[in-house]
Specification:
It is globular, with a radius of gyration of 24 Å. It has helices at 3-36, 102-105, 115-125, 140-154, 167-171, 193-205, 207-222, 234-239, 248-268, 285-291, 303-315, 323-331, 346-363, and strands at residues 47-50, 53-56, 61-65, 70-74, 95-99, 129-132, 160-165, 180-183, 186-189, 271-276, 318-320. It is an alpha/beta fold.
């Protein structure tokens, strides 16, 4: 057979293979979208630009599909996460406020499954409304700024504000977003947003990508490749004995920062309830660093717990910390976080929500 004819047949075979794969992928994409009831439109993200930082879009409903969970984010007219969209009608009912980052926001679960949502459900039965002003990715300064902005709009003080802290927010207490840009509702670094935006659009809008990604991680988990390792190396440094809060100057500046917020609350007659929510990964860091050949004695897991406890004890403030309870569950073998993610799973959110209800309404009788 002539060489040219052989080459033509190979080309035809390659074209047929490529066309067949393309048709298969197209059929899979259509089938997955029909199954998921997912449109072909590019979905807008959750955020709007706010100076160099960002805020949540108001009156938004956004379905998020992660490889480990599917959840819906709804925001009210204040741009705060809520059970429904629309105006936040407080009327003349007393209300409480939660501020914090993505842990308090309940990233990865529906609002009703988050610990704030669980608390909200119980509090509403007692005639108390709840505002969740937490925003994922916010530093402490931005959390406080959003709180005071909303207070000015409402013209009525809350019964209390839950000033929520964790190792990350305390470590980065003096930081702010300075290089953030919002494009189509998504967050990017201003310096390289275009290439990151294109990659994100492909990832978010190809159901076949999500299908194969989920299949990969399913196999990965079945093979138990995850082990006990901490997934985000930065969190090793948060608990290292070289971390900044071990420095006396940094510790004093953090205390002065908290003092300023507390003083303003005192002036306005707003009760402050301090809530420490430990990062789920902190419970297994000792084992993780040991497996990596590091010395576990170089890490101080309860540094931040002790700091805020000492502060509250000296100043007579209420402190709630579910770490002992979560430690018990962890030692019983319970998984506390989402797979491949640091945020609380549905189980842990429920435990923390029920803990708050018991501590606030029963144990301490705060309201």
């Amino acid at each position: 057979m002539p060489a040219r004819s052989m080459r033509n047949k190979r080309r035809e075979a390659i074209v047929v293979c490529i066309a067949t794969l393309a048709v298969c992928f197209l059929m899979l994409e259509i089938g997955l979208r029909v199954k998921e009831n997912r449109s072909f439109d590019i979905s807008e993200g959750e955020y709007v630009q706010y100076g160099n930082s960002f805020r949540l879009r108001k009156n938004m409903t956004k379905l998020n599909r992660w490889s480990t969970s599917t959840f819906t984010i709804k925001t009210n007219s204040l741009g705060a996460r809520d059970k429904t969209t629309g105006d936040k009608e407080l009327g003349d009912r007393p209300y409480v406020v939660f501020i914090g980052d993505s842990q308090v926001f309940g990233l990865g679960v529906d609002y009703e499954e988050s610990f704030v949502g669980i608390f909200d459900d119980f509090a509403s039965e007692q005639g108390i409304e709840t505002l969740n002003l937490a925003v994922g990715g916010y530093f402490l300064l931005e959390q406080e700024e959003f709180f005071w902005d909303v207070m000015e709009r409402l013209h009525r003080k809350p019964l209390a504000v839950f000033y929520t802290l964790n190792a990350s927010s305390m470590n980065w207490f003096d930081s702010e977003h300075e290089n953030t840009v919002v494009k189509n509702g998504y967050l990017f670094y201003r310096s390289n947003w275009m290439s990151a935006y294109v990659k994100m659009m492909i990832r978010n809008n190809l159901s076949t990508y999500v299908f194969f990604r989920d299949a990969f991680w399913c196999i990965y988990r079945r093979l138990n490749l995850r082990g006990g390792e901490v997934k985000v190396p930065r969190h090793f440094n948060l608990y290292s004995k070289d971390s900044r809060l071990h420095d006396q100057d940094a510790a004093e500046r953090l205390e002065a920062h908290i003092d300023r917020f507390q003083s303003k609350c005192d002036e306005l007659g707003i009760r402050t309830i301090y809530l420490y929510v430990p990062i789920a990964d902190s419970f297994r860091i000792k084992e993780a660093v040991t497996k990596r050949g590091l010395d576990p004695d170089d890490y101080d897991i309860t540094l931040y717990d002790r700091f805020i406890k000492d502060y509250c004890d000296r100043h007579g403030h209420t402190l709630l910390n579910p770490r002992p309870l979560l430690r018990e569950y962890y030692e019983q073998g319970e998984v506390l976080d989402l797979v491949r993610d640091l945020h609380y799973n549905e189980f842990t959110n429920r435990v923390v929500g029920e803990y708050l209800i018991e501590q606030v309404f029963i144990e301490h009788g705060l309201f």
